[in-house]
C-alpha cells in the first residue's frame, strides 16, 4: 500500500516487480498489481497505460537503481581501466543475481520481456550510456567527450550482449572490455 512516504507509482512498481519475479509477465495481472498496491485497476492503467508500460517502468526503475550502483563504483576508482573492469563485473554479476533481470533474461513466465534488453532496449541503452558518459567525463575531464561517448556506447552494448548470452567468466569479459575502452581512448598501459 502507498503511504505518505511512498508514492502510488512506487507502490505499483513494487507490486509489479514482485508479480514479474513470482509469476512472470504472461501471468502478471493488473488486478493483482492494483490489489497489492491498494488502488483500483484503473489507477494502474492511468499511471502506466497498460501491462507493457508497467513492465517497461519496472525495468527502467531497476535500471536506474543499477546505474546508481555504477556511479558508486566509478567513484571508487581513480583510473579508467580499473573502473571499467569493476563496472562490467558489477553488471554481469548483478544480472546473474537480480530477480528482475533474471525474469527478463530467462523468460520466466514467457519471453515477452526479453525485447526490453534486446530489440527494444533503446531506453535502457541510452540511459545507461548517457549516465556513464556524464559521470566519467566529470571524473576524468581529460577524456575526449566524443570518443568516450562512442566507446562507452560500444562497451554498454557489448556488456548487455554478455548479459543476454554469457561467454566465459565475467572477469575475463570485464578485462577484455576494459582493454577495448583503453585502447580506443589510447589510455597508457592498455596496449
From TrEMBL:
Superkingdom field: Bacteria
Span of domain HTH tetR-type: 6-66
Keywords carried by this UniProt record: DNA-binding
Keyword DNA-binding: yes
DNA-binding interval(s): 29-48
GO MF assignments: DNA-binding transcription factor activity; transcription cis-regulatory region binding
InterPro entries: AlkX_C, Homeodomain-like_sf, HTH-type_TetR-like_transc_reg, HTH_TetR
PANTHER family: HTH-TYPE TRANSCRIPTIONAL DUAL REGULATOR CECR, HTH-TYPE TRANSCRIPTIONAL REGULATOR RUTR
Protein's name in the database: HTH tetR-type domain-containing protein
Organism (species): Actinomadura macrotermitis
Amino acid at each position: 500500500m502507498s503511504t505518505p512516504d511512498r508514492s502510488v507509482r512506487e507502490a505499483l512498481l513494487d507490486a509489479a516487480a514482485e508479480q514479474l519475479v513470482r509469476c512472470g509477465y504472461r501471468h502478471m495481472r493488473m488486478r493483482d498489481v492494483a490489489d497489492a498496491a491498494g488502488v483500483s485497476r484503473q489507477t494502474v492503467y492511468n499511471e502506466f497505460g497498460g501491462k507493457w508500460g508497467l513492465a517497461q517502468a519496472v525495468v527502467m526503475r531497476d535500471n536506474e537503481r543499477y546505474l546508481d550502483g555504477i556511479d558508486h563504483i566509478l567513484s571508487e576508482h581513480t583510473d579508467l581501466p580499473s573502473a571499467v573492469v569493476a563496472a562490467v563485473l558489477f553488471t554481469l554479476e548483478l544480472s546473474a543475481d537480480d530477480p528482475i533481470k533474471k525474469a527478463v533474461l530467462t523468460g520466466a513466465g514467457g519471453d515477452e520481456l526479453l525485447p526490453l534488453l534486446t530489440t527494444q532496449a533503446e531506453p535502457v541503452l541510452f540511459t545507461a550510456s548517457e549516465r556513464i558518459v556524464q559521470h566519467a567525463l566529470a571524473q576524468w575531464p581529460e577524456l575526449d567527450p566524443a570518443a568516450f561517448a562512442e566507446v562507452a556506447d560500444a562497451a554498454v552494448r557489448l556488456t548487455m550482449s554478455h548479459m543476454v548470452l554469457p561467454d566465459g567468466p565475467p572477469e575475463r569479459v570485464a578485462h577484455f572490455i576494459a582493454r577495448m575502452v583503453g585502447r580506443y581512448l589510447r589510455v597508457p598501459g592498455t596496449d
